Amino acid sequence: MSTMHQGSRQQTRVPWNKDIALTRIREWLDREGPLLLILHALQEEFGYIDEAAEPLIAETLNITRAEVHGVVTFYHDFRREPAGRHTLKLCRAEACQAAGGDPLARHAETRLGVSMGNTAADGSVTLEPVYCLGLCAIAPSAMLDGRVVGRLDQGRLDTLLAEAQQ
Amino acid sequence: MTLRLFIPADAGALAVGAEEVASALRAAAPRQKVAVDVVRTGSRGLYWLEPMVEVQTSAGRVAYGPVAASDAEGLLGAILADGAHALRQGLAEEIPWLKRQTRLTFARCGVVDPRSLEDYRAHDGCKGLDRALALGPAATVEEVVQSGLRGRGGAGFPTGIKWRTVAQTPPQQKYIVCNADEGDSGTFADRMIMEGDPFVLIEGVVIAGIAVGATKGYVYIRSEYPHAAATMEAAIAAARRGGLLGNRIANSSYAFDMEVRVGAGAYVCGEETSLLDSLEGKRGLVRAKPPLPAHKGLFGRPTVINNVLSFASVPIIMDKGGAFYRDFGMGKSRGTIPIQLAGNIKYGGLFEAAFGITLGELVDEVGGGTRSGRPVRAVQVGGPLGAYFPRALFDTPFDYEAFAARDGLIGHGGIVVFDDTVDMAKQARFAMEFCAIESCGKCTPCRVGSTRGVEVIDHIIRGENRAANTALLEDLCHTLKFGSLCALGGFTPYPVMSALTYFPEDFGAPPRLLAAE
């Protein structure tokens, strides 16, 4: 079942392409308030929102490029550049802090050689903080490419990090 | 013979290996010469027992947990021999942690197949809708008013009054919006409902639509909940096929349809007006009120916007009547509240109880104290904007007014437990830092005050002009509380001030008891 998000599939994306982008944009035009739907679709396609997408969207929706840019930059989810081959999100919110999340986050940063919010030099993984995955009764928690992991300890985290570095 | 097994596909269960357990049990079955029929359910919310596997027996469903994939062979053998097993918990319904709850909103969660409308109907689903259709819109609104249901998102505004306001606007395009942007750390009740019993939410939204004359609904789900979004999508599709959504709902003359929208990682979008802007495809900026969303909401139209748990409580209110629901609870807090026990806690999970249960009962008796085994030092109730309470306040009953009287809030019902290793100055700093990261930027107290707050707390932690900076922090919190446009800036002072008030020794001041003498 596709919704189970089992197995951390590598994120394979197509390179930026204006025609594909326009096709994806037009798929949502029958919806009310479609901008977030469009941005999600583009990010799913290309892995990020290319700067060149902004005028395309603006023209299609008949709004200003500034409005599109404002939305892209307002939301934490939308990337302005491609991420690593894997994305590892570590929950940094209170329930995970209470359950020992702070030293685990430092361990991940040290082991990957990046600080939160950045991509490893070899392009393998982007390490990101997330403020709550709703897994607060099995904290600390993480998400690797859409696969959720709870009851993290150093051993389980090391397994995830090894997977992420592939 | 065929064994009927129930294994959660709830994200919390998947995160601790439920999928691997399901695969291992399927693989082990032929070796044990038995056929298995695996039903994927939501979670019952006993997370320390997840992955929890249930087996249908003539006496009821027997639970085993926490099960690992490596247990599969032995577990099947024990089930077939009807013998003892170290993980056997007895009948699921008889597990004391579950049995002492009052499950109204969560009655079906963890029991039914969340993607099957037939299963929903077989477990008393759609009875509330049937009664709403029989009563008509006006009486439906009054039934919700009579129930005393208050917004479960945190603000606690009477749900029925909101509905009545929208119902009284002239006929036009109106909307129902479900706030499923459950961003508070320590909360997961919305996620559990969407993954475990999505039809109860759909039914509640449909009843709201009929009651106020709306024909379109949106469920705004945070992007951190991909499993919840997928299950909701599947349930909505099933509801369309089954006539629960569409042009003639349940063969009536009412039309209603709804769709899922996914957020993009902005905590502030849990605030209702910010959520509406986000749904419109804009930056999630908070709107000034008035106008109320009930008058000018989504796309400027009259809109009912309620939390997942508010909508999910409506079907049982309509089925059993407002008085039935109102008879639970205390004071002005009527009915039940799904409480979420989280963080450093031994028995964490979803505990639905009538209002009035005390914080101490929840943390010590139900939750069993910390998982680390160390003493409980502080609990944060109500998410990142909720106060930190010390043990001295554990007699506080779960009630909107009782928490407010002690400068706290129950919010969305999350309780995060911390042991005695917690540094409360660090937690206060985090509250300001989080506000700075998540501020929408529209109002100055929140946008600027949160960043200044981090700086002032840093000065205090470093011992620079401690008395003057503490007074400055208190003043800043006052400005945030009374000058911010929404609860993000307005409530960030709760965690900060409670940490400072109850745990002054972490800020370099004398402890509270000594200071009082």
Mean pLDDT of chain B: 97
Shape field of chain B: globular
The CATH architecture of the largest domain in chain A can be given as Orthogonal Bundle
Ends distance of chain B = 73 Å
**Percentage beta strand of chain A:** 5-15%
Q: Report the span from N to C terminus of chain A.
A: 25 Å
For the largest beta-sheet of chain A, the strand count, sense and barrel status come to: 5 strands, mixed
Stretches with pLDDT under 50, minimum 5 residues of chain A: 1-8
**What is the number of beta strands of chain B?**
16
- As laid out across the biggest beta sheet of chain A, the strand order is 2-3-1-4-5
Q: Share of helix among residues of chain A?
A: 40-55%
Superfamily (CATH H level) name of the largest domain in chain B: NADH-ubiquinone oxidoreductase 51kDa subunit
Q: What sort of overall outline of chain A do the alpha carbons produce when their principal axes are compared? A: elongated
What CATH architecture of the largest domain in chain B would you give?
A: 3-Layer(aba) Sandwich
- The tally of structural domains of chain A comes to 2
Class per helix and strand makeup of chain A? alpha+beta
Q: What are the segments of chain B in which pLDDT stays under 50 over at least 5 consecutive residues?
A: none
Helical proportion of chain B, percent range: 40-55%
Instruction: Please tell me the total number of domains of chain B.
Output: 4
Question: Which chains share the greatest interface?
Answer: A-B, 46 and 68 residues
